[in-house]
């Protein structure tokens, strides 16, 4: 596309692209925007070095290679702040510039937003299901090594307490949490191997550590854990079996042993439904892995990136089932006096409708002239976490249900013209 547009002179035409999803996945009533900060960081370094240009010169003409040699995005980008909720048709990202500079961003932005948003959206459902109990992201062994780092950040953004991924801590400041694995217990062989393993862990980590008690027999494991650490033991973890039943039994046993403040952590193929089923059990926190880093059945957010405006004039697709609304758009969200949102209104950019209701404009500037104009880094991540909490609290109660159903709020599109 770039080579053809450069050749016929259309590459320099002013273009407007939008990233949106045509519909929410069947099991989702809302989505959580994530990946904005990672995209802005990637955008700043999105250039073509000598090695890339050498590869491209094998199948691209000289004019196109020359354009890419000098490439730097110099356009404007607006979008939803990271951590904001979105719905079908929400103009999550609007990109303006020459057709040439906008079109080459497609894979970069879609790969980041589709992954991170899917993870954050799943994580938010898990956080809501946990009802205020902390969750630990433990999915690094279930996904690509780089995706694992991004997933840990997205989960933290959506409300998880921390991650077992050290690189996510180094790169993004996500708190590090974790426990030992069964291998450490199995390493200590003999009749008293489990007790020896627990004593070794306590000696290294202190009594506030978390001991994994289900390698053999859970009741014996709990007894050994308290014997090794005393009644001040920080926590025990259960990773298998009927978790709700075991949690009640372990709580009772811990209390009888005097370890009344020892917490119970559960893990083992949990998703939002499994977490919700444990709400009545005496569980203090959850470790979540596979379901989280795979989007809990929705591994991609379904975002697309479409040309919607050329030289200020709306353009749109009419393809069956894949129609697009022409023109760049922005959005606002209407709420009752109580703060509960009632609808999202998508309108032509720069032309907000007059509304006799409490409303908040969602779209914000992100990039101007190629330069980032919004907060980034750890402060932005903290703000995004607060935004998720506020967004979930603003939804009608039925919009938070895990069951399949309609989006949490309706979307109204104000037509161009």
From TrEMBL:
Residues 136-328 form the Nicotinate/nicotinamide phosphoribosyltransferase domain. Transiently phosphorylated on a His residue during the reaction cycle. Phosphorylation strongly increases the affinity for substrates and increases the rate of nicotinate D-ribonucleotide production. Dephosphorylation regenerates the low-affinity form of the enzyme, leading to product release. Pathway: Cofactor biosynthesis; NAD(+) biosynthesis; nicotinate D-ribonucleotide from nicotinate: step 1/1. Catalyzes the first step in the biosynthesis of NAD from nicotinic acid, the ATP-dependent synthesis of beta-nicotinate D-ribonucleotide from nicotinate and 5-phospho-D-ribose 1-phosphate. Residues 1-114 form the Nicotinate phosphoribosyltransferase N-terminal domain. Pfam families: NAPRTase, NAPRTase_N. It is an enzyme of class 6 (ligase). InterPro entries: Aldolase_TIM, N/Namide_PRibTrfase, NAPRTase_N, Nic_PRibTrfase-Fam, Nic_PRibTrfase_pncB, Nicotinate_pribotase-like_C. It comes from Mycolicibacter heraklionensis. Keywords: Glycosyltransferase, Ligase, Phosphoprotein, Pyridine nucleotide biosynthesis, Transferase. This is Nicotinate phosphoribosyltransferase. It catalyses: 5-phospho-alpha-D-ribose 1-diphosphate + nicotinate + ATP + H2O = nicotinate beta-D-ribonucleotide + ADP + phosphate + diphosphate. Its EC number is 6.3.4.21. One of its GO terms (molecular function) is glycosyltransferase activity. NCBIfam families: NAPRTase_put, PRK09243.1-5. Belongs to the NAPRTase family.
